[in-house]
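Crash report, auto-generated. Payload:
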Amino acid sequence: MLNERSQKVLCAIVQTYINNPEPVGSGFITKRYAFNLSPATVRNIMADLEVEGFLSQPHTSAGRIPTDMGYRLFVNSLHSEIEYQPDNKSTLYRMVNELESIKDDINALLEETTKKLSGFSHYLSVAVCPSTRISTFNRIEFLKHRGSQVVAVLLTDEGLIKNKVLDVGSDLSQRHLNRISGYLNSEFHGYSLIEIRAKILREMAKEKDLCDTLISRAIRICKEALFFPYDDLFISGLAEVLGLPDFSDVEKIKEISRAIEDKHHMLQILEKISDTDGVKVIIGAENPMMQMKGFSLVASSYKEGDRPIGCVGMIGPTRMDYSRAIAVINTTARFLTRVLTDRK
Amino acid sequence: MLNERSQKVLCAIVQTYINNPEPVGSGFITKRYAFNLSPATVRNIMADLEVEGFLSQPHTSAGRIPTDMGYRLFVNSLHSEIEYQPDNKSTLYRMVNELESIKDDINALLEETTKKLSGFSHYLSVAVCPSTRISTFNRIEFLKHRGSQVVAVLLTDEGLIKNKVLDVGSDLSQRHLNRISGYLNSEFHGYSLIEIRAKILREMAKEKDLCDTLISRAIRICKEALFFPYDDLFISGLAEVLGLPDFSDVEKIKEISRAIEDKHHMLQILEKISDTDGVKVIIGAENPMMQMKGFSLVASSYKEGDRPIGCVGMIGPTRMDYSRAIAVINTTARFLTRVLTDRK
DNA sequence: TATTAGCACTCTCGATACGAGAGTGCTAAT
DNA sequence: ATTAGCACTCTCGTATCGAGAGTGCTAATA
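Recovered output after restart:
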């Protein structure tokens, strides 16, 4: 579609703009890059690129800035050099090492990871826990709390720990509860929570008319105990990201603040990425699901063994340093994968 | 210090400025308020108020705006009418009713409370859980997880549920763990976590030379399990607050973002308030501990019975609607107190 | 003596103008 | 096909100006 020379010019423009957020003129390109072209020729190429939709002009007689399509082409041309950048190797490794010590607690691990990522990259960083939807039931315990309240503690094979406060009838003793959890643990061990949900619904339909047996009661409690409307989402780096020149505009700031507070929506996007493999880059409004005009997301799933279970990523302006971001996220995701896989 | 008339004029100016963030001129005051004074007289009073430090002038020949001291006097003069404002009564009650349904889970309750508060008031709202420092030990359980990992689940009398992942030697069976938790539960029930910490340290000093008895082991594990560096902090409403005209300035936005991300510092302030009784108002840089120049905090502790255990509040620009904020926080804190006390 | 009317003064803000600078698009030459 | 040359366009910073709002001061007033 695009000849090689045009593509090279485009990439040069994108790179230049990423380094410094000002419209790029033809003169700069000819001076900075050894394409052996005159400014006039570059201008012609730029005009073509604009017609094709890769560049745009803030106004006549200004330089060009990349469109989302322009960034996309740039990012696609990047995919070969996805591995570590030399310059941030050491810092990144140091960061990863510091995380090694808390690898046992997946929540703490992800929280620290986002904190370190944002401090390190100056972008907003995000991570989601292994989704409760796909997690594998390991064990559930019920602890009698105050009055008729019971705390259900769910452990999954992925290392998730989830609490839920339930209100059961006041007549269940701890002994009863232990029998219930014993039953559930033997019955459900190894199933995914989704399967268990389905199983429970079937059971409930079957036992509908049965009176208050322990089992039917167990199942009803379990249905509640296994239902977690939201997965945990970690976000860090708002203050960092506001330091970028791209956020000198108040509207921009409001937009990213809204994105942060709308955790539900953010989760949807990240969980979709959690299911796939490798680094994903979503640029600007590419994905209709993100109303993030002006922002890009670089994210990757992390895995336990071969199975993707969660996702970690960075959000920045569309003018973000993709090659660095991709490298960083890639390294981070591999690190998480290694840690989560090794502990088996 | 200030005669009554001056004080009235000051309050009128503050109120006017709160309604509309523009410097207030002498003409407006005479027209709007029936003080029976001429603009010239008001100007004289304003000049005095400025000398005394209650007002400031953005530039010669502009109206006056309140200083932190001015807001302070205004707020102090307000304390009589601290109870519900008539206009937002119904909305506030509706909000509180909606929260009633999740009162069992204190974390969820506080999270929802902050969400509703910020949606309702358009200010940033915050809440802290009962501090683990002062919480009362109710019960601890250890669940063997993967490998040598153990999940400690701590329940407090205040309704807190805390998890912690520990790495104990791999040779402890669930049976051992149960004996340990049994021992701890009988030993520590009813003590505050702080007391227990002290007890543990004493025990450890005593048993230092003893070899690996179950008890000394229990104590060591417990020491770790009861240590939670941070309490949970809920913050909501960033996107809301950015809609206020006070945040048209990027610097202001950055400042509040930093305040949000510096949870450690925020916690310090709120936990101090958690220990006291009633609504506290901190205006601007009044409290040296908050580097929040330009922001005010209206907060109140909530109690269980007679004992303050946590804190809920709202943060807004110094130009915030204090009388409304105080009323709202007061109502909210009372609601929390009632809910947390009744469940006994 | 406290208040007020009158008035000159000061400062902001929006509109307008203008020149420098950067970069373009087009045309004609190579 | 590329390029040199040049006129053109647009932004941005600065300066200017007048309207408007509000003040501070002085002298008159109750």
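Post-recovery validation: The longest strand of chain A covers residues 307-317.
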